[in-house]
Write a structure and sequence with these properties.
single chain; 160 residues; Jelly Rolls; 7 strands
């Protein structure tokens, strides 16, 4: 095993361990639904994951995406990579800054079952506040490109 492979495996193990600790330490939370307004005028209904527990779980272990996607949200902009461990279907992942501007898109990310070899995506976007996860080919379907701006809003009436 090369030193690089060993460091990658160690990094993945640390992330996986932190995710498990977060899942066990945080109480069950209610699901929050958000609207994503696209440049085309289309609106998507997505589930928001804005706590360590909900972001760590993400779409892992579910068979079908509910609604139009999932929005991972962080209070502080930073590098927020994702991985496809325990995913059941491919997705497009769209990294956005705090204003909703698309920083980058990774298309058709495929599931990964072995946490020692699952790649991390999005490490090249240092000012990420949001990652929008759509079904595979969703970014192309809505003609989303880096530089486009998305608007995130609550549902009318504060529905959850």
């Amino acid at each position: 095993m090369t030193q690089r492979t060993l460091f990658h495996a160690l990094g993945v193990f640390i992330i996986f361990t932190c995710a498990l600790v977060a899942l066990m330490a945080w109480p069950e939370e209610r699901t929050r639904l958000r609207l994503v307004h696209l440049p085309s005028g289309d609106q998507l209904l997505v589930t928001e994951a804005d706590s360590p527990m909900t972001r760590a779980k993400g779409l892992s272990g579910i068979d079908v995406m509910t609604g139009d996607g999932m929005l991972l949200a962080w209070r502080d902009p930073d590098v927020h990579p994702i991985w496809m461990h325990d995913m059941q279907f491919p997705i497009d992942a769209i990294w956005c800054d705090h204003t909703g501007m698309i920083l980058g898109i990774h298309r058709n990310l495929t599931p990964c079952s072995n946490p020692l070899v699952c790649p991390l995506y999005g490490q090249e976007y240092p000012y990420t506040s949001y990652v929008l996860e759509l079904p595979a080919h969703g970014a192309a379907q809505y003609e989303l490109r880096p530089g486009d701006r998305l608007l995130f809003s609550d549902l009318p009436g504060g529905a959850r």
